[in-house]
Amino acid sequence: LILCETNLTDVQEAIVRTSPTVVVIDSIQMDAIKTAQFRKFLDAVNVNGKAVVVTPAVDQIVVKSARNIPGVLTTPAVQLNVYDIINAQYLVLDQAALAKIEEVYA
Question: What is the pLDDT of residues 56-106, one digit of tens each?
């Protein structure tokens, strides 16, 4: 991850310093609350450690599907914080969440 700006926000600095693996996907959508299905999704995108899954808004299906997976935290983009980024090995974002992060933290 390379940022060209010299004035980085705390969130951007945390990403640069800790360098979690950033995974950006088109969309995180689930039809039903299924932990096994969410685990398969994480396996498919090669996420197998502490991860923060960032959604554009609170998605109860995603939250409830991920809550029983050890080391996986879900958060809406507007509540993403430096501690969560520093503590994660993977940062999983969908396109809408990435746009929201740029809007909020830019």
Answer: 999 999 999 999 999 999 999 999 988 898 899 999 999 999 999 888 877
Which residues does residue 92 pair with via DSSP β-bridges, in sequence order? 23, 53
CA pair distance 9, 51, nearest whole angstrom: 21
Cα 29 from Cα 35, distance rounded (Å): 13
Q: Please state, in angstroms and as integers, the Cα–Cα distance from residue 88 to each residue in 28, 80, 92, following that order.
A: 19, 12, 10
Which DSSP state fits 79?
G
∠ Cα 5 47 98 (to 5°)? 35
Tell me: pLDDT of 1 over 50.
no
